[in-house]
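User: what does the whole thing look like in 3D?
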Amino acid sequence: MLRGIDLDVAEHEVVCLIGASGSGKSTLLRCIDLLEPIDAGRITVAGRDISGRGVNANQVRRDIGIVFQAFNLFPHMSVMRNVTLAPRKVLRTGRAEAETQALELLERFGLADKRDEYPDRLSGGQQQRVAIVRALATQPRLLLLDEVTSALDPELVAEVLDVIRELAAGGMTMVIATHEMGFARDIANRVCFLDQGVLLEQGLPEQIFSQPREERTRQFLQRIIEAGRL
Amino acid sequence: MSAGEVEGQRGSRILGGADARYAAIATLSTVVVLGVLATAVVTSAGWPTVKEKFFNGAEFRFWFSDVAHAFVTNIQLFLIAEVLILIWALTIAVIRNLPGPVFFPLRAMAVIYTDVFRGIPTILVVYLLGFGVPALGLSGVPTSERFWGTVALVLVYSAYVAEVYRAGIDSVHPSQEAAARSLGLSRWQSLRHVILPQAVRRVVPPLLNDFIGLQKDTALLSVIGVVEVFRQAELGTSADFNYTPLVIAAVLFIAITIPQARFTDWLIARDRRKQLAGRAGG
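Assistant: Here's the predicted 3D structure for the full assembly of 512 residues, as structure tokens:
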């Protein structure tokens, strides 16, 4: 349940959402992608109000990519089909062109040799990277990442974080919900702390991680440090 | 014998594995049990009469080709019916899933359809359509009993198969639909490309079961005069006052349904193996 979120994200900005489980990070991301209806308030993307009536939600979702914690690849399709499904059906790209573009993306992230494999033959890290490629295939302007490394074995986390680093370097606008504090400190332009559905505090990573203003932020970070995750 | 060897043998025996000793004992046991049963039957007082009335060699040879020939009709009927059922039932299942208030009447009609055709005995539906519709004498409406018999079977079985499809659709995890929608696919597109392919794969065993039921129920069309295997066997039975033709019909049905039942079992076992492997492999 979200109670008070006031967030602006500029183009090419990387915003990291941190907070305890249940604080509303996932809910916020799902609301932005119109996967959950909002009761009050407004969501504006590129100057356009996407939360109003009469908005074509499918079109909006084309421009926003989201990657979930559980990779959610389509198990009955190969990697190539997983990636090209949306471009072909939603953007109406021809099959050959969609496959060429997909192959470029897969090559960029070291997955080209897996193009004909089915998801059950891939490791968790590979599946998650395919999920990111799939979300990028419709050329979204905004990418949402919902704790994409939380379900991975530790040794597979790095390869996924590298993909995200590269996307950030390439100027992708991203909102990332994550528990990886070190990663957030490295990559974020801004860090937002969510607590019980409220955006309690936001600021530069250096400021949030070393000198948080709010008591609850301090408590949360203290617990993280004690758990050895920072 | 090392601990590992004993473990392996015990394990495979519990799971029904096939090492040589298991096979030998199973064969011996089967021979003994069958031998005892056969002896008991054959030496019982009533056997000669039963054999003459039900398992008569001469009758069998005389009627086999006519009965088998009529069986071809049943095969044609169920092949055509099954294709129509798979399509019509999918339509009903999709209609049941239509969202929003504007589609309420369609959803309600689908529910009523399912309730009605699962509630009336199939033989009644066959009778009502096979005799009733031609009796109306409406112009342009087919009157062939094969046509209306097939329609009756399609209407009834689609009600059951639609429920099977629904169960399949519901069994696909909602995160699959979320992922599809998040890519910009419409409800219809995600149903067609993501949900239905997975749903249908999951319900192949119950679909096969219903198909086997359909094959047997083609015999019901005899009541409206279709000359299929049951009708033909009845004619043979009443001609000679001997039940062997009916036994021929029964044998023909078993001959086609048993392989399908084993195939269904094999499919279920293979799916189970895949599922367990997926979980273990991670």
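In plain terms: Strands of chain A lie at 14-18, 44-45, 48-49, 64-67, 142-146, 173-177, 190-195, 198-203. Chain A touches chain B at residues 33, 35, 58-59, 61-62, 64-66, 68, 70, 72-76, 85-86, 89-90, 120, 124, 134-135, 138 (CB under 8 Å).
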